[in-house]
């Protein structure tokens, strides 16, 4: 079994190092900033150093925590754990100096830490500046440890009380660089791990079969890391697949069931009644476009090439796209925003069995505003059943009861919180109460019922808790006059609510620490591996072009794209109109925050600069 290498920094009297030394399978390297002569005069230091050496530990003096790789040979630089208890610049150094010390320390630690290693930093009560501190200092008056660590690529993965009294023989020392103890009551141990680097996505070409032809198209940049993740594949242990399997198994007990996922294309063509075109990811076919040399070498020479139309296109006041003459565009396609058109096409072709529950599932794509429950992509599960006219209500009730049973069963394995699932009629819902999923669905066609889910005892349907909708449609079919019942579920929202996942972006993380929490076929209450991530606020103000309606969805989509989904909130904080000219100015506040990766102040500043450049170019605004 491999020996765990532990590095201790800034030891005052080596009593903490002595308490760790001797643990099976652990090799301790204990260091301090001062020379051996300076340290040996401190109370009990000489005894602790002797004990460490007797037990095989290394003791190194005059070690600068900001230049760690200078003290160890390359083959001895990989530590599994680094401890730095109560770092301080010394004497009366203020918060800014100590932030700088921590910043240099984290960068130095990154050079000598294993990939799976941990960095433990103990701070006195209030210094860290996180919500774990009680009482919590104001951010500007703290050491801002999560933001400082993020600059070196670390995330806070755990935090707990530093209980000095439980550490055998430990005695704190070093108050203002003297051999005096300091108060450690309420102190916290912050445990940091490496973050995955921020993604920088290259343009991606997606190749599919469409209308019996091999076609390819450029994936919208905001969807590059989401277009083909395979979360609903049979061997997937992703929560959305587990929920889908459970729902399918439960409903197959009540209905004859048929899965028809295999025939669903990512691209759709045709008119979507009532849907604002600014909510659609458009893919335009241009037959005059010629494949590049690289594309030809990759076997795409005979493919039809598509391009993604994102923001720089004219729209009318209702958000409908105006395709200008002379563009040589023969067909317009878009990434499917719903599975409903596929179900309708299957019904109209007669390729279904009355009384059988047909199940369609897969990712769908929608441009939307940035809110906690708004997802540009999510996994939809659509149930379709044709029944005799007059029996649709009993079919709906049976369908909802089985959905309830399976969700309750899943939830009971995860949490003891109270779960309520209920049907709410369309008439009881105000438009302002709809989350983004329900609001878009209501554009497609009239909804009879909303399936609402809440995990509390309040009994109120909160914004964001609508996880499904039910609608019916009448079709004059050959066999008889049937009514078709459609039930659509947002599997991503269900996973978030059942597993306590607070941020939809976490479902799409590539960090293995997410999926490791979910064994195949099982759900767990999610435990975040990035606690109290730092947030950064930037404002942007601009004049909008005269006579044009500002496209807020496009504005939000540009923010998603340039930040790699790091913008969590966009608020309109000021609107001004010049009385003389009628020119209109808007001011928005953007909040940047990552749920799973280290995000530094410098990286956010670069995102903000790029955002300003993109809105100027794509939305033709004049920056102020």
TrEMBL record:
EC numbers on record: 6.1.1.20
Protein name: phenylalanine--tRNA ligase
Keyword Mitochondrion on entry: yes
InterPro entries attached to this UniProt entry: aa-tRNA-synth_II/BPL/LPL, BMT5-like, Fdx_antiC-bd, Fdx_antiC-bd_sf
Keywords on record: Aminoacyl-tRNA synthetase, ATP-binding, Ligase, Mitochondrion, Nucleotide-binding, Protein biosynthesis, Transit peptide
Annotated family: Belongs to the class-II aminoacyl-tRNA synthetase family.
Family matches, as SUPFAM superfamilies: Anticodon-binding domain of PheRS
GO terms for MF: ATP binding; phenylalanine-tRNA ligase activity; rRNA (uridine-N3-)-methyltransferase activity
Transmembrane recorded as keyword: no
Any Pfam family matching the protein: BMT5-like
Top EC group: ligase
Organism: Eudyptes sclateri (Erect-crested penguin)
Domain FDX-ACB: 531-624
Compartments, record wording: Mitochondrion matrix
GO cellular component terms attached to this protein's record: mitochondrial matrix
Reactions the enzyme catalyzes: tRNA(Phe) + L-phenylalanine + ATP = L-phenylalanyl-tRNA(Phe) + AMP + diphosphate + H(+)
GO biological-process terms attached to the record: rRNA base methylation; translation
Gene name, Swiss-Prot/TrEMBL: FDXACB1
